[in-house]
Q: What sequence folds into this?
């Protein structure tokens, strides 16, 4: 496999079959990812199994097929079931005030782009997942091993991007990564809006959703609150602070997030396209395309990949790592 690509995974069939394929094919990647998060969970490890089961119950009520799929992943990978739920709910379990990721949604060009910033250990483990549903819908996502959803698009031209936000309250709703999968199981941004409404609050993140028609909206979650903003013929930048609601996290240093927000907004106003924006390296550790650097308490973080989705063309381009001179990988659905 070329160094520029992530680990490939193709899934098809019903939920049980897909989960079994996933767990069997990616067992070693899932086990390595569990070890990464075992260190991060630290004191949370003892409480995590019960918490993961609570998330399972919520997912069961929301979308039973996901539980079938996730249970099958665990069986085929030969790992404790609760770990698969913990990996999918890792954002809610950790609830860290770590600034990461910059996204751009442009309804004028049907483009959705973002950087995904996290720990360098995940760069070797990340999966390029292509999922073919029995009804013909195809999903293409870049996911952490064990997760059933993350950043990507589908063959109906729906895409989703993610920015972590911080809220000091416990997050016990449908995990954001499961919600992202449910969005990509939709045939339009309007249908995805219904899914988000059904899921209700219970997380701290921003999701930007767009489709090939030019529809684009983003939703900010702050535990029991959420706010949806629609875009019409415009573009939106989002980083890691709240734009539509009052910041619920007092005392958190968001200077880096605001720096990236300002830079990306300026570059957009100057006419730079999404590929250029997610490649920008000015401002050192606060760059949009960020080098790996120390970020207490978890160690190093930086840009693991940049992705640009052209939804009317059903294309995804991603670039692994944080070197803007690296090659883009081109995929279509």
A:
């Amino acid at each position: 496999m070329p160094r520029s690509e992530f680990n490939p995974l193709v899934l098809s069939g019903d939920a049980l079959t897909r989960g079994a394929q996933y767990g069997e094919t990616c067992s070693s990647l899932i086990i390595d990812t569990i070890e990464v998060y075992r260190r991060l969970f630290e004191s949370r490890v003892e409480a995590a199994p019960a918490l993961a089961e609570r998330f399972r119950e919520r997912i069961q009520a929301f979308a039973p097929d996901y539980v079938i799929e996730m249970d099958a992943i665990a069986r085929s990978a030969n790992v404790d079931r609760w770990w698969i739920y913990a990996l999918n709910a890792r954002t809610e379990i950790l609830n860290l005030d770590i600034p990461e990721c910059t996204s751009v949604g442009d309804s004028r060009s049907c483009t959705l782009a973002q950087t995904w910033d996290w720990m360098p250990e995940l760069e070797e483990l990340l999966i390029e997942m292509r999922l073919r549903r029995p009804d013909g819908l195809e999903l293409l996502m870049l996911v952490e091993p064990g997760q059933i959803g993350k950043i990507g698009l589908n063959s109906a031209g729906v895409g989703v991007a993610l920015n972590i936000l911080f809220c000091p309250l416990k997050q016990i709703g449908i995990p954001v990564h499961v919600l992202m999968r449910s969005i990509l199981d939709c045939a339009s941004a309007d249908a995805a809006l219904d899914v988000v409404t059904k899921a209700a609050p219970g997380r701290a993140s921003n999701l930007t959703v767009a489709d090939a028609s030019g529809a684009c909206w983003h939703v900010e979650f702050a535990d029991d609150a959420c706010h949806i903003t629609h875009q019409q013929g415009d573009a939106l930048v989002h980083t890691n602070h709240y734009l539509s609601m009052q910041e619920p996290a007092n005392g958190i240093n968001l200077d880096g997030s605001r720096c990236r927000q300002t830079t990306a907004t300026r570059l957009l106003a100057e006419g730079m396209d999404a590929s250029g924006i997610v490649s920008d390296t000015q401002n050192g550790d606060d760059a949009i395309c960020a080098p790996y650097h120390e970020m207490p308490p978890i160690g190093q973080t930086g840009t693991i990949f940049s992705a640009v989705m052209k939804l009317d063309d059903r294309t995804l381009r991603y670039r692994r790592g944080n070197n803007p001179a690296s090659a883009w990988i081109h995929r279509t659905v």
In short: The first helix runs from residue 15 to 25.
